[in-house]
Design goal:
15 strands, disordered N terminus, single chain, Beta-Lactamase, five-stranded antiparallel β-sheet, Rossmann fold, five-stranded parallel β-sheet, alpha/beta
Length: 452
């Protein structure tokens, strides 16, 4: 009876970390997930145990007391190029000098405090890829006994799994690949892989295959690669590609595991935007702290310009109520290039003219209007005024002092409709609080702007 390889998603993990609290925490977590875990605190201990035992994954902290983590990474991967090593550290790759060659040796790079789901998924993916590669190397000799189970695994996988030959011709296409790219198996098998690549990648792919066909020794990247895929409908999307390869008497074959990277890219972009927004808020706040009363107008205009550009608004502005609360005037305004200013016509407005909007503002509610055209009938005066200014979307945050409405700050979208993000609201809310402080301290005087 031919032995059939069984791919298991549980395995043995070596944790190398000199922080006893963190080591125990991650060991307990992985043990609960069904893994067998060995914990060591030094590089020397790690080298000793990897020579004695076989591991499926190594979690390696960079800050070891005796051996530099990157040096240990090199030693371990030199001894077993197929052993996935996940770097786990309190630093980011940009906090210390880490060359790209070292990063390529690591399967993944995670920072502390780690996200449990991310760690679990990364380990699962490392073991899965290693298992598939091992299985593929034996496929030629055990095809009859293992084909059904292998196909079952590939068909059930959530990631696209594609097999091609050394000429780039697709030989296998699982259901996840169909869902991801839109092609049925019968439409893609036998065709070149370049069908699912944007044009800018194709020449490099063809040259790479030509080079690999004549290479005596093949070294594939140990970490996932980031590219863009091309769907059947012509749309591009970011992907993460992990490669495996094996050789038979028929030639070399490649297995690619492809994951849609759209969600992660959105998360990364949101994180970068959040960091940039925090920096912007800090800089704008510092600007007001350092500005003399005589320069406060310029500081306000600078702030409106910066937050408007950051939020990609067409117009940003400040309105102040008169001391009696009977009038409201646009005191400061910034407009994007090509957008018509409105400040000259928005003076000494009566809240009674726009009861729907001012009722909400006096209740300290944010006015978030993605579509001016869909305002309710009771907001017809507001809709008429906004359409006269060619405004398609609006975001306004009230300014209050001791629960009294003293003004508001806002964004306009003129060129296209906008659904404003939570970060946009938070940004405006913070700026409105800063403006309220300026009013309360007398640096900003509403009397000075009444009727201006």
């Amino acid at each position: 009876m031919v032995e059939t390889p069984v791919i298991s998603f549980r395995g043995k993990i070596l944790v190398v970390d000199d922080d006893p609290d963190f080591g125990l925490m991650v060991t307990d977590f992985l043990a609960q997930e069904g893994y067998t875990v060995e914990l060591v605190a030094t590089g020397a201990s790690a080298l000793q145990i990897v020579n004695q035992q076989r591991f499926d994954v190594v979690l390696l902290d960079l800050g070891l007391p005796d051996i530099d983590g990157l040096e240990l990474l090199k030693i371990v991967t030199d001894r077993d190029a197929h052993l996935p090593v996940i770097l786990l550290t309190a630093f980011t790759p940009f906090d210390r000098e880490i060359d790209q060659l070292s990063l390529q040796r690591a399967f993944a790079y995670l920072t502390k405090p780690f996200n449990r789901e991310q760690l679990k998924a990364t380990i699962h993916r490392a073991i899965e890829l290693q298992s598939i590669a091992v299985h593929a190397q034996r496929l030629e000799h055990k095809l009859d006994a293992s084909e059904a189970r292998y196909r079952s695994l590939v068909d059930a996988a959530q990631d696209a799994i594609i097999v091609m030959n050394s000429f780039g011709i697709v030989l296998s296409w699982n259901p996840a690949a169909r869902r991801l790219f839109g092609y049925e198996a019968m439409e893609i098998i036998g065709r070149p892989l370049t069908v699912i690549m944007p044009a800018r990648y194709r020449d490099r792919h063809i040259r790479g295959l030509r080079r690999l066909r004549h290479a005596k020794h093949l070294e594939l990247p140990a970490t996932p690669l980031e590219f863009h895929g091309l769907r059947k409908d012509g749309t591009e999307f970011p992907i993460e590609l992990t490669l495996g390869s094996w050789m038979t008497h028929k030639g070399r074959f490649f297995c690619g595991i492809i994951r849609d990277n759209t969600a992660r890219k959105h998360q990364e972009a949101a994180l970068v935007r959040r960091i940039e927004m925090e920096q912007l808020i800090a800089e704008c706040t510092a600007l007001f702290l350092e500005t003399s009363p005589s320069d406060i107008d310029a500081a306000i205009r600078t702030t409106l310009a910066r937050i408007g550009a950051f939020a990609k608004a067409d117009r940003s502005y400040l309105f102040l109520m008169s001391p009696q609360g009977t009038e409201c005037s646009n005191t400061h305004e910034w407009c994007a290039p090509g957008i018509t200013p409105q400040i000259h016509r928005l003076q000494r407005l009566s809240p009674a003219q726009f009861p729907w909007a001012f009722t909400q503002l006096k209740r300290h509610e944010v006015l978030h209007i993605p579509r001016v055209s869909e305002l309710p009938p009771e907001a017809s005066p507001e809709r008429q005024e906004l359409e006269q200014q060619s405004i398609q979307s609006l975001l306004v945050v009230p300014m209050t002092i001791q629960h009294r409405l003293v003004g508001f700050v806002g964004f306009d979208a003129v060129r296209m409709e906008r659904t404003w993000l939570a970060d946009d609201i938070r940004l405006l809310r913070t700026i409105s609080q800063v403006m309220a402080i300026l009013l309360r301290t007398g640096l900003l005087d509403s009397d000075r702007f009444s009727g201006s």
